[in-house]
Amino acid sequence: MISYQYTITNKQGKTLTFNNHTIPNSVFALQSYPTFQKAIKNSELDRVGQNNYWDFFSYYGKLTIGFAGIIVAPTHQILEQKKSLMLEVFSIPVQPTTTNDGYVTITWTDDDGIAKSVEAKLTSDIQFDRKLGDRCVMNFLIQLKAKSNFVSRAGASILQSGIRGWYSGGFLLWTLLPFSFGAQWTNKISFTVDGLGAYPKIKMFGETTGTITNPTIRNLSTGEIFKINTTLADATRWVEVDSSTGTVVDNFGNDLSALVDVSSTFITLINGTNELVYTTD
Predict the structure, then answer these.
(1) How many C-beta atoms surround the C-beta of residue 264 within 10 A?
(2) I need a surface site. Which of 57, 194, 216, 275 has the fewest CB within 10 A?
(3) Residue 79 phi/psi, 5° resolution?
(4) Tell me: the pLDDT tens digits for 2-32?
């Protein structure tokens, strides 16, 4: 990762690139391995009057990013100009807004040819240092925190579509408990995630053949089920579930959070293969 070209773009479109050696004596060059470190959130409870403790689930927390390197320039004047550009690109606005919140987009391509990106902003001011008498080289240290602890594939979202499925085949034996034999899900959607995991955005449409009652999405790989107690009258109607924001809206923009079934869990995609299926009542 130390040799990758990292392009930093702020909300005003200003950019700079680390490790672009097109002009060898005018470059932002990394001198140590960049850090992408996730905090781990732990929760535990002491056992009163006993040895040991009760441990609970752990979760990933904040992702911090660090870049350390040098600015090289042919003259001291150009060195100061490049320093000013770095400060401008990473600067946090005096009054943040939704369109200028201080986050920059960091993009790079790894050795497998996969383009990646992450949004981050400064956690402390950039540190600069220069050796006495060396007027054309300056050290820098940048510390950032990411908007999310997920590193995304850069560019367009990865989209996949399918049609409504059902549980079919085999036969059902009504013994002490209902028992199915040889049955399987049809019209499954297979989705592969390479990395920590992902929060998907899922849109469930109605159909031209009749009313859809209580649209449901299932992740067969995790056992998660998300069900909305509503109806979709035709193919122009849909509901969208965004697991990253925890929102549920319909095609009119109405908030359907109150209609989410109590047994529902927001769908997540685990690292590896995920099999999803869209069903209804």
Answers:
(1) 17
(2) 57
(3) -60, -45
(4) 889 999 999 999 999 999 999 888 999 999 9
